Amino acid sequence: MHSNMISMVCMDNMTFDFILRILVAALLGGAVGLEREYRDKAAGFRTHFLVALGSALFMIISAYGFSQALVSAEHRLDVSRVAAQVVSGIGFIGAGTIIFQKNAVRGLTTAASIWVTAAIGLACGAGMYVLAAVATLLVLLGLEAFNYFLRRFDRHRNADGRGTLGEEGGASV
Question: Do the Cβ atoms of 16 and 104 come closer than 8 Å?
């Protein structure tokens, strides 16, 4: 019994690496989600957190979970197939965030953020931490820069007496 307890506490390096991959994915996805949550968007912290975590987990399972099933040299494992299915599934979730209302499309940026968060999760699942971190920074920079320019444009439109983007233009982030 004592040795079982020790083996449960002591993880092998591969298990630790897998846990690290999903933790990093969840944190990076959560960072994007916090920005969406702050902007009061439909998909916020929890959604982005779970999308990144799930994508990383699917990538890990795809790459390492079926090695026991391959017992002959004639079988080959194609990890890209699961990644492609993650992209398809996320497209379905993202489509649910897009709404056409009052001649305006809303939720497109949130759908795109869910999509890129899945890619960040897949990168973490593949162990590409630097790529995932840089992508996350670029996403956050892009979202914030876009909001900055929208606010400036809104002020410019207000000064001209033409209203705001939210009233007529339908721009949504």
Answer: no
- Biggest CA pair distance of the chain: 77
Residue type at position 147: N
pLDDT tens per residue, range 35-51: 999 988 888 999 999 99
Q: For tokens 């197939």, what's the residue?
A: 81
- Nearest-5° Cα angle at 46, 20 to 89: 85
| Residue reference for tokens 């820069």 | 145
- Integer-rounded Cα Rg, in Å, for the chain is 21
Gap between the Cα atoms of 17 and 23, Å rounded: 10
Q: What is the pLDDT of residues 102-128, one digit of tens each?
A: 888 888 889 999 999 999 999 999 999
∠ Cα 163 164 169 (to 5°): 105
